[in-house]
Amino acid sequence: MPLQYxxxxxxxxxxxxxxxxxxxxxxxxxxEDVARYLYGDALDRASxxxxxxxxxxxxxxxxxxxxxxxxxxxxxxxxxxxxxNLMWRSQEHxxxxxxxxxxxxxxxxxxxxEAAAAMLxxxxxxxxxxRICARxxxxxTASVKVxxxxxxxxxxxxxxxxxxxxxxxxELTYAILGTEWAQAQPAGAHSxx
Length: 193
Fold this sequence. Notes:
Number of domains: 1
Helix content: 25-40%
Number of strands: 8
CATH topology: Aminopeptidase
Number of helices: 6
Strand order of the largest sheet: 1-2-3-4-5-6-8-7
Order of helices and strands: EEHHHEEEHEHEEH
């Protein structure tokens, strides 16, 4: 499915990353407080450039295991304030997973929820996923709030299920079914223009 990943919400533009986004990307992905609950470490310039290059070169998500990584910008601005992703978890079971990371300077405005909602919409309307999940460290209360605002239900609390950055951590799994998502949408909001 050749889909142009240029999405717009009421306040945000979501688009593929470009190499010119490096400074904005590093403004949050180089921070220890942002990396705290991500699988990678805080990025230095070289590692940030390599990761951004990989994301910028990625094409459309066409099969299981691939993901769409999008930069998030306030409408009318050029500064990247975060990133969202949608991963194709299982073709057989029509499963997806969303994730997000944002510059703390922009926390508290609902941007993560708005951008993640666009990724749910993409997964359900364009990819026909049956279920989309999101996972986080149980200590990441900000992420928990985003998932709950999205209408996702907590399905699992795994106790010390992985050794994460040198310590045992709990993991929470939230999910929403396509039918649940569709019922919660206002009329006419089920597809992209």
